[in-house]
Amino acid sequence: MSMKYRSILLFGAPGSGKGTQGRILGQVPNFYYFSCGDVFRNLRPEDPLGRKFVEYSSRGALVPDDLTLEVWRRHIQAGILAGKFHPEHDTLLLDGIPRNVRQVELMDEAIDVRAVLHLACGDNDKMVARIQRRALVENRLDDARVEVIRQRFVTYEAETRPVLNKFAPSMVHEMDSTQSPVAVLSDILQVLRGLS
Length: 196
Description:
Elements: E1 5-11, H1 18-25, E2 31-35, H2 36-41, H3 48-57, H4 65-81, E3 91-95, H5 101-107, E4 111-120, H6 124-138, H7 146-160, E5 172-176, H8 181-193
Parallel strand pairs: 1-3, 1-4, 2-3, 4-5
């Protein structure tokens, strides 16, 4: 790989609002939004990778690293070839990847992380309610069952939250995701204004 992609990580537990903020920021010129979950959910069920995603997500587990990174690489290359992502000008907004410490290490040669936007919410019940609303609105089967949602929080705490420790504290910007989406966006924009 000849150049590292300038990147910002959207980070937080399931239901913290990463997708909401990522989709908004992805509309801003010079930002390219990549949601690992959206890409996996859009895989066809007859695709072997699509079947793997359903197998893992239906029990609240993470898709294995090699499959996740392969999907990420393919999608980023497709974005470049389609003229949607211009690495020399654009900042990559990553949602749901890297999702564990090993992925941080595997992706180090590909991404230059400038900031981690940590959408923090201490109230799991509030996030469960958000996820259940999202399941109805977006017809997301992986968000429908409470026991699967609760397992996703366990997985997040065990495997994903430690990712924060891989970055210098000065790079991690915590914001209260229980605020309105507009207030969270305002906090994010304040951080982005301070980045070079």
